[in-house]
Design goal:
Elements: E1 10-12, E2 18-22, H1 51-60, E3 68-72, H2 82-90, E4 94-99, H3 106-117, E5 123-128, H4 134-141, H5 145-158, E6 164-169, H6 175-188, E7 198-202, E8 227-231, E9 234-236, E10 248-250, E11 259-261, H7 265-271, H8 283-286
Parallel strand pairs: 2-3, 2-8, 3-4, 4-5, 5-6, 6-7
Antiparallel strand pairs: 1-11, 8-9, 9-10
Helix pairs in contact: 1-2, 3-5
């Protein structure tokens, strides 16, 4: 009689290159249909992480090879101390702001450029936009969100930023088509974009559980292999599993786990992608 025990694959953290910081878990000014976050009915959740926790995390990871710090959310730019946190993180490494772009206009872009010039490091922007068609995009993200993002791109490009468009392939279209259409839009607004500027990921359906016939993907470039996220509740493996007990790696960066069993639906979704979902592939920028 055989004793076959199922064992989930695991991912080992090789280096902590990407430090994600969740500035707020539930505070966002949008309610996108396809968001993996379960928002409460109230839109005024005040769950902002304390800047002292971030300061301590930066101290605890001094010996780690952190290349980029990602300010994430819900919507990170709703944090009342966002500017102070940005300046603090820029002292350590490059900073990527993962945002829905609604807080970025020309005045804000000009201010952020001055903040960047105060530092030796760079600010990168990941702007959420999910379709080149305004109606399809706004059906997912809310009326007016498409034009807000286009305006944000124009403002950032004016001040020599090089934004990344974070695209969730909700409608399951050919990636070549998505990239081609978005490149055309960028060309029309004066943004000379290349492959680095488009990050297309598969849609994660939180209401669907993979069946026994679904096969594990071949993506070896998982975010959990070189990243961890700090939240108000501790250290977790990735933004998908932030504040989820299954992804808890420790209470702080003094002692945290570097091994993660890939046993959740989120992990399965990541395996279906061709690259990172949350981190930026800087190798494309060098090519």
């Amino acid at each position: 009689m055989s004793n076959n025990i199922f064992s989930a694959p695991t991912a080992q953290l090789s280096e902590l290159n990407n430090l994600f910081i969740e500035l707020t878990a539930k505070n966002c000014n949008q309610r996108c249909k396809h968001c993996y976050i379960d928002f409460p009915l109230s839109k005024n959740v005040k769950d902002f992480i304390a800047i002292d926790k971030i300061r301590q995390a930066l101290t605890d990871t001094k010996q780690e090879k952190v290349e980029c710090i990602y300010l994430t959310g819900a919507e990170p730019m709703t944090h009342p101390e966002f500017n102070s946190i940005l300046r603090l993180c820029l002292k350590r490494a490059n900073v990527c702001i993962c945002t829905n772009a609604s807080f970025i206009n020309e005045k804000k872009a000009r201010f952020l450029k001055k903040v960047e010039e105060e530092s030796a490091n760079e600010i990168i922007f990941k702007l959420s936009v999910d379709h080149f068609n305004e109606v399809k995009n706004d059906d997912l993200r809310g009326r007016g969100s498409y034009r807000q993002t286009i305006n944000a791109i124009k403002s950032l490009v004016k001040y020599d930023f090089n934004p990344v468009l974070n695209i969730v392939n909700y409608y399951n279209e050919e990636k070549k088509v998505l990239m081609s259409e978005f490149k055309t839009i960028c060309d029309n607004i004066g943004f000379e974009a290349n492959d680095f500027n488009f990050q297309i990921s598969e849609y994660y359906n939180k209401y669907k559980t993979p069946s026994e016939t679904d096969k594990w993907g071949k993506n070896s470039n998982l975010d959990c292999k070189n990243g961890r996220i700090l939240t108000d509740k501790g250290v977790y493996v990735c933004p998908f599993l932030a504040n989820d007990h299954r992804g808890r790696m420790g209470s702080d960066f003094k002692d945290f786990s570097k091994k993660m069993p890939l046993e959740t639906n989120f992990c399965f979704s990541c395996s279906q992608n061709t690259g990172k979902i949350f981190g930026v592939d800087f190798k494309l920028l060098q090519d």
